[in-house]
Design brief:
Oligomer: single chain
Number of strands: 4
Strand order of the largest sheet: 1-2-4-3
Number of helices: 3
Helix content: 40-55%
Radius of gyration: 13 Å
């Protein structure tokens, strides 16, 4: 079971459905706490990032001003990083390769 918190009510339904889909598909046997925090970023900032707070607690900060498809792609990209952390590694190239395929799903 996963505990998912989204701090932006306008993005809660979309964020929760994507996170649940991803976590059920890739981490069904791992219990974790995930906070998704949409924020307003500057134009030159990253679209999102993932912080590992402890072994089973993660925080994703994501630019709330993205277009819907870009928001979905970025959230999936960051969820891939959660999956990578759980499996003991991080690879930006892998996240970029997987994000487009998974966004279409």
């Amino acid at each position: 079971m996963h505990y998912i918190s989204i701090t932006e009510p306008d993005l809660e339904s979309l964020s929760r459905s994507i996170a649940n889909w991803f976590l059920d598909k890739f981490l069904p046997d791992f219990e974790l706490d995930l906070d998704i925090i949409p924020l307003s970023f500057g134009p030159d900032d990253a679209m999102g990032w993932t912080l590992q707070l402890n072994i089973d607690e993660y925080e994703i900060e994501i630019n709330r001003n993205l277009e819907e498809k870009e928001y979905i792609t970025t959230l999936i990209h960051e969820l891939i990083h959660v999956w990578q952390h759980v499996n003991g590694y991080q690879c930006e190239d892998e996240a970029y390769k997987m994000e487009s395929y998974l966004t279409e799903q």
